[in-house]
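Many introductory courses stop at the sequence. We go one step further.
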Amino acid sequence: MTNDISQDLWNAGEPSPSTPQPPMLDGLRVIRLLGAGGGGAVWLCEQQGPLVRQVAVKVMRSVLAGPRLRERFESERRLLARLDHPGIAKIFDAGESQDGALYFIMELVQGDPLVDWCDQHRLTIEARLALMRQVASAIQHAHSKGIIHLDLKSSNILVREVDGAPVVKVIDFGIARLTEDADAVMTSHGDGAHVVGTLEYMAPEQLTGTRQLDTRADIYSLGVVLYRVLTGLMPFDSRLMKSSGTVEAQRVIRECEAPAPSDRVRQAHGVDLASASERAACRQLTTSQLVRAIQGQLDAVVLRCLHKQVNDRYASCDALSADIERWLNFEPVLARQASQRVRLSKFARRNRVSLTVAAVVASGLIAGTIMMAYGLAQAKRELARAERLHAFNTQMMTAVTPEVAKGMDTRLLRLIFDQSMGEIETRYGDDPILAADAHGTASMAYRSIGEYAKALEHIERKAVAIEAAYSVDDARVLDVRNEIACVLLMNGRVDQAAPIFEDVLARRRVALGENDSATLASLHNLAWLRDEQSRLKDSQEIYLDAAVRKRIVLGIEHESTLRTLDNLAEVQRRLGKLAEARAVLEETIAVRTRLFSAQAPDTLLARNNLAMVTKSQGDLAFAEGLFGEIVSDMDRIFGSDHPYTLIAQNNLASIYRDTKRLTEAQAIYEAIIPAFERRYGPDAKTTLVARSNLGLTLEKQGQHSQAEAIYIDIITRKRRALGDKAESTLNSLHNLAFLYTNSMNRPIDAIPFWREAATGYKEVFGERSPKAAGSAISLARLLVDQGQSKDAEALVQMYATDESIELPAAMRLVATTTHGRALAQLGDIAGGMVWLAKSYELAKKAGDEKEARDIAGKLADIALDAGDAESADKWTQARQSPAPN
């Protein structure tokens, strides 16, 4: 597709004619109009000789062709024809048509405008910057020939694919001028004059009538192009610019500072979430990730291009390209250093009068100098910190993260990492705040590889410096305290994390409001805390609140929203709300896969949670296949000993255990337990969960004594590390009680463990939850066997009679049977026989003939004791019915 090189012109002069007239040119056959704008029209023509080829012919508007321009036109066209660069469309010829219009005959370029190409192909920031370097190279060539383009914009930079790679081609030098042309026509002549070019891309000096335009006008335009390539937005709101009129728009360009690109992205996100999310997705990022990618270094590069004062811009396209290359190579950009000098010069310009007065008044000079020196020194320190820390951040954060390491053995990398972390105080001991930033980087990096103890050490060292430097309500203090609480929770130190999370949330609510992103992050963390405290109902309620707010404020594609939904689904799974959990996870996985990939780290975690849900739903075949994929992907992305990989292996082993592939399950557990112990220690929650699962596997293999020893040891450790009411502790109590009841025939030993588990599950999950029901029903059955019918009936009645409580069929059968037996023992013979009869029908319906015969035997015994010979005979016959073949 051939794109009109002037189709999106916004001209400050008079509008172009609605129907441009075709050029009258010898040797050219006009095929059709490609497009028209304020500067003229572009036509697709066929050149008849000496070569037969299609060309683009730009015919300049006659009103622009004054005497001086015509005078210079002949010499300029010869110079334009000398441009010879693969990134520049060739100028074949130029001249004057029969009707007096000036024209250029140009190479016909196939391609799409730069921004359109980038968005259509969803190029990353890195790929977009690589294309901008191609553009800079082409314009540098033109500048070296003494030519300024003066109309650089996306539609004049076309991109097409050549041998599988994108190649740029700069077109339309139709209004270019010479750098050393003292008599060149001015671009603007004030109000009502004809502005040549595209207003939103014009450098301020193009609008002032100056004759001193140089190549740095193109640097400004490249800055606008770069701004749009990075953000999808113009430096100033196009709709407001156009609605305010030409004069006001020119004033904005001449006088107003453009916002930093990252700030512009944030502002646009607050105005239109859907559009902002789509722009970020075109760069394979979320909005928050896009802001983080641009802010700082790339902000400085763009804003240096856009300085109002030409001397404050890059001196050349090569200098701009070199700074882009530095960013791509993770090196500090020079624009950050230049910005200090620029700010000082702007300060002097803004305060010229004040400084003059201060020079006269001696006392004022002394005080002002002290204050100014302090302010400038502070700015200098901030800049120096940023530059010094950048290399450290780059080195550490790129060395061992899962995305970079891709599963390779990272032991050597970690050794280097540890050595670098030990150098923080040596490198930055002279600056506590800079050292604090380095410790923050170290903490984040250690978290990314699952080294939570080391992460805590570094974040605590950062907090000491930050809390000493700022007030308790300062955002920086609240941020670092929030980080400390997160890492404490990762290390299983729940009691220490709790008051910090709660305090930070309260302070953020007061300072920022309920719906600020930082407040919402704290709300998420409070839900996470409640989960770790085994307050699952509270956790679910808070996650739901946070998820609703984040959908509205941040949008579904925001990483923070997705994380909250993932955690909500995991809590719902453990509360037995499997359908709700599955629906949530399927949504987040679809969004994450579209924005990132199925193998992205957070997508993998969501897929792991979905596999757990399907396992709980009984779809073991689907869950096994999904877990197999996840383990393979996590091993490749995170490495074999990363916590996420180990947890996924643990979950896969649970599938093997439940499908009676016990040898395979045991092998996995025995492999991952030492890894958990090395990383977290023998009392860590994850270590104990894996050991508990090994005990279940041994129990199923008949190794009851070994399983018992593991369970007792685990309960002791969990009580000490997690508390009596922790979900994990209750699970272990349940496991030991089940072992005593079903495998070792020690019901008396089982009763206290069933009782503690049932009470704990009721407090944590609610009495209607499957876990509370299961423990209560199991305890009631044992109590009936021991003749403690009153206690048994109090426990089991609701589960037998309330059919709105969702229970597995086998559990419902035990409940009704136990309820019937308890009633009979308490003297309600009729009631007992009614419920046992219902149990008999449930067993028959389930195809459990053995259980049906056992229930029939109980009914026969009760009827016989009550003197009901007819019923006793009926149920005796039922008990004696032959078992199915």
